[in-house]
Please model this.
Amino acid sequence: MATLLRNGHIPHAFIFTGIDGIGKQTAARAFAMACNCANPQPFKTAWPDLPSPPAVNACGQCRTCRRILADNHPDILHVRPSGNLIRIAAIRELIQRLMLKPYEQGKRVVIIANAHAMNPEAGNALLKVLEEPPENTLLILTAQQTTDLLPTIVSRCQQIRFAPLPRDVLVELIAANEDLTREEALSAANLSGGSYTHALRLIGEGWIPRRTWLAKEVSQLRTQPTVTILALAEKLAARKALLPDTLAWLLSWYRDVIVFPFQPQQVVNSDLQDQIEATAAGVDQQTLIKGMRLIQKALKDLQANANPRLTMEALVLQLAAG
Model:
């Protein structure tokens, strides 16, 4: 993107793709700032061999940058889902605004968040804008993947793929903004799949203490009577919204127990290493692999709208049986 700004060859439309919570919206806003900044700065490390790198980085301090950061710049237009959808009325309103002249002299930027939420009518209406884009206007669409968009829309945009955030970056972000130990921040980062938003949600839902409780329950499963095992299944099923994260964590736990005897430094739940080591000493590898397969099956069953309580009962009973 810096190269595009440096060369001045900016396409009329982008699609930023990648999982939620990795900075697509932030990058879109930053690009809008870079296109309009009154006092652009050089990227000091991008071209170290150049004596005077081109000034293409937004300063973040000028009046224009501050207005864009505050979402109140008249030429930076935002379209967001209403509920779960972006409907045609929102795109029609956007088209009407684009028919008017920009308020200022810079580049007008339209940021359509979660563009995959457009219904077919909205997508077709936007296509007309992409086919005949207004002068000096840039459209930036964000989506999880291009397959969720009309192929005709994708073909008229330049795609930039955002990778999940590196674990070390996430740990620093979480530790700087949340009252957690570094080990807890590391666990949240490992469970987030590279998404800062997902990591914050897990923390906000009390996932760190819940994970500690789950580790204790799972490590004792094989020694518990059936009534206790079924009570655990009931507790898990009662938090239906947390089940995907619960099962994802169970997979990470089983993976840690499998990996520990060979590469203990690679465990995800490093602050629970004592429990992982104790579990690994008492369970053979084939049983652990079988357990992971059972958890994966439970995840698929839940995604297919299986009954949560029955699914969790079957899972914990099978995990306990080994």
Notes: The chain has two domains: 2-161, 205-321.
